[in-house]
Design a protein that fits this description.
Elements: E1 6-13, H1 20-28, E2 46-51, E3 55-61, H2 71-84, E4 89-95, H3 102-114, E5 119-125, H4 132-146, E6 152-154, H5 163-172, H6 191-204, E7 216-225, E8 240-249, H7 252-259, H8 264-281, E9 285-293, H9 301-306
Parallel strand pairs: 1-3, 1-4, 4-5, 5-6, 8-9
Antiparallel strand pairs: 2-3, 7-8
Helix pairs in contact: 6-8
């Protein structure tokens, strides 16, 4: 790699739940993309900004490309396709513990059709889950899928293994040029989008399969909170904020799941999300969560628009 500074846009692609968001967070060094054991949890193209002495990588984290069953699914796929044509490099993520299947081959086919000139890099994720022999087998299989020109890198985002090697490989594929963003900036997503995603992540933890696609979160308002009687002033770490959010589901039965018996589950969601949002904003917040039913919103163009899709 030359000594010239390089910068550009990189897209992680792959089937849902292949470790794309976890890898984004590991490379950026802070949580800016939601992670979940549930497939299809990413909804927005969160841009994570990776600053290194020799390069700046702008990571575009897309929803997993899949065969759509709803209008929301179709819109998420359109988002991915738009992204393919606008980036300098595409990194295909394949987990070390899952065989390459028809879905992976379909994604490579889509990339080759839509962005034939974009540099393609293979990433074998989750190498902490298997032994070295299995990693070697997966690297070979991915190499054969992508062709001899593509570089393939094994990583474990959870353990931080090989993450810097991947940064260097991607950087070497980017054009020479100045940084797009000032040092220290980690994402260009509005804070409200990130807050909504963190609430959504907390709400998806440990619930049954019917919920992931059906849950949307909207931040209604964020207001400075006045110090209450008996409090001399807001905490020294900064102002207190009141954050009001609405969690939309499609059916009353889902509303009951999110709220839980006597409101216990919603309280857990609020506690988990509040900690993440306080870390994100660097200030204390009071989080107010309300759950509403928006019937079949995934199939309704007007409701999709209102919810930001």
């Amino acid at each position: 790699m030359s000594d010239e500074f390089r910068s550009g846009f990189v897209c992680f692609v792959g089937r849902p739940n292949t470790g794309k968001s976890t890898l984004t967070n590991a490379m950026v060094g802070q949580k800016i993309a939601i992670t979940s054991s549930r497939p299809q949890t990413t909804r927005h193209t969160i841009r994570g900004i990776v600053h290194r002495e020799h390069a700046q990588l702008i990571l575009v984290d897309t929803p997993g490309l899949h065969r759509p069953r709803t209008l929301l699914g179709q819109r998420l796929n359109d988002l991915v396709r738009d992204t393919y044509s606008e980036v300098d490099a595409i990194a295909l993520c394949i987990p070390a513990d899952e065989k390459i299947g028809p879905g992976d081959r379909w994604i490579v086919q889509q990339i080759n059709q839509m962005a034939p000139k974009t540099t393609l890099i293979g990433v074998v994720t989750k190498i902490d889950k298997v032994d070295r022999g299995a990693v070697a087998e997966q690297l070979l299989a991915l190499s054969q899928l992508l062709g001899p020109a593509a570089e393939v890198v094994p990583v474990s985002a959870v353990r931080g293994e090989q993450v810097e090697v991947l940064v260097d490989v991607i950087a070497s594929k980017l054009p020479e040029g100045p940084a797009f963003y000032p040092d220290g900036e980690l994402t260009d997503e509005p804070e409200e989008t990130l807050m909504a995603e963190l609430i959504r992540e907390a709400a998806l933890e440990g619930v049954r399969d019917e919920l992931p696609h059906s849950l949307a979160v909207v931040i209604e308002e964020v207001l400075p909170r006045e110090a209450e009687d008996g409090e001399e002033e807001a905490p020294k770490s900064g102002e207190l904020l009141d954050v009001h959010a609405i969690l939309y589901v499609e059916r009353p039965s889902q509303k009951a799941i999110v709220i839980g018996r006597g409101g216990s589950r919603l309280k857990e969601v609020g506690t988990a999300a509040r900690k993440q949002i306080e870390h994100l904003l660097g200030t204390r917040i009071y989080l107010h969560l309300h759950v509403k039913v928006a019937k079949d919103w995934q199939r309704d163009p007007k409701q999709l628009g209102r919810l930001g899709f």
